[in-house]
Amino acid sequence: MARKLPKKDVVIIGLGWTGSLLAHELTDAGLDVVAIERGPWRDTSTDFSPTQDPDELRYGIRLDLFLRPAQETFTLRHNIAQQALPIRWPGAFIVGNGVGGAGVHWNGHTWRFLETDFTLKSHLTQRYGASALPEDMQIEDWGVTYADLEPYYDKFEYIAGTSGRAGNIQGKMQAGGNPFEGPRTRDYPLPPLKDTAPTALFAKTASEMGYHAFPRPASNASEAYVNPLGIAMGPCTYCGFCERFGCGNYSKASPQANVLPVLMRKSNFSVRTECEVLHINKHPGGNVATGVTFVDSSGEEWDQPADIVLVCAYGLHNVRMMLLSGIGQPYDPKTGEGVVGRNYAYQSAGAAGLLFEGKRFNPFVGAGSLGQCIDDFNGDNFDHTGLGFVGGASITTSNYHGRPIAMSATRAPGTPAWGSAWKKQVASTYQNTSAVAGQGSVYSYRDKYLDLDPVYKDRFGRPLLRMTFDWHENEKKMTRFIAQKCAEIGKAMGAKHVTPRSLPDHFNVVPYQSTHNTGGAIMGDNPKRSAVNRYLQSWDAHNVFVIGASAFPQNAGYNPTGTVGALALWAADAIRNQYLKNPGPLVQA
Description:
Helix content is 23%, strand content 19%. The protein is α/β, with parallel strands linked by helices.
């Protein structure tokens, strides 16, 4: 029997980017907020002290900051005819654990999605006709537009201290920025990061080829900065330890560096760490939540009543929590009915590995989001007529790390994978290696979805989340096209060896690819095809809001964090200025 705690105005499941932003906004509105976080407390000064040398083996290889399968894992199958099996070690994607969540270990890529990404189904149908789309493709419009989210993109970028160069300010194009981006209110709060040799070479070459190069937006502070919450950031030192690491220099945006120093001082906010929410509790009537039940580190169960429940965990966990709690009808791929688990998507990649001769790239001088990009082949920025696919990718040469263990895997064609010849090759290629990489969209399909596994359970006896996913021909064709473009740029850059890479025949969960899982609790304007409305409010229980990349109806050719941050602030505004005045559905079903 769970012990009952005093009621709160708001309970938040997870204290990463979304949980921290919503907690800050709602405590400012005077609400009493508690966050429940499964992992440990993490603090910059004690957990990521700059007096300690970064340990690649501990953090980059053994994944010290990440969720262990013994805590929670997923099962995977390629199609419904297969038996799903548990993922025994983090491979294709790695999930954060603890306060800060993925905001601790990310690189800092801070994109705004394209205007057409938010109206994708309407746009593609209008431009190419419905017959141009695969019959089983299940893309949707988001229910919000870029214009709706622009003020919240802006707010997130200024909280995060994002470095970059605008391409479009209030409709006026800006030299050196991204000409394909939607209009923004103002420029980034900080100028771009400094280029390194490979990123400068890419920008020069791409521009000579007629493309539009621009610096990648980075929530790595290019200069000292104080954000709107009054929190100071230090300038990036280009140490190359961003991805999979916490930043001890307060230079990479994270909840710890940009929100928590203010939030943790508020008397109307508290956090319970190392406590796992088992399920959301519902009123017997079913259309409203009453709070959550969680278990603490000693194994004792607690009931936390609350007027509002915010589901702010990692996207896959958000979906599982809704399924475990019976909020929203589970998706059935056979009938196409149901909403929770629908439209799961991932991230694709088409790239070209580059090996030069006689270069000195100094790859150890890097920052998480340091790179030069082109968007000429992203989304629908180019004509897809006759190509046999839709979608695209942002194409980049980056300089984000030179970590020796990871870099030792780079080999010239024909070089052995071990022995003296391999050692000689590692020594000779370390300074001469680069890549042109395309991060691509993945669109949604009827047969790719999330549900509860009927066989495998976690340590509390709850079903694991089952992923049914494999690559579709649309994405395979798109990444082959992108890999060819990457190879053409790499050859023009002067690389001696150019190795194109696109998607394999089947999705493989073993090698790392991307932690950008999206969908499963998607937003939209139709309760029969979406789990949450345009404000990320559950259609099924009006006091439950589900925040994160789980809301994406499909994935774009960008990292999701900037859009996740904007959606969190958009939802917070709706709760503060609409829901609190008149609790109930903000959109009529």
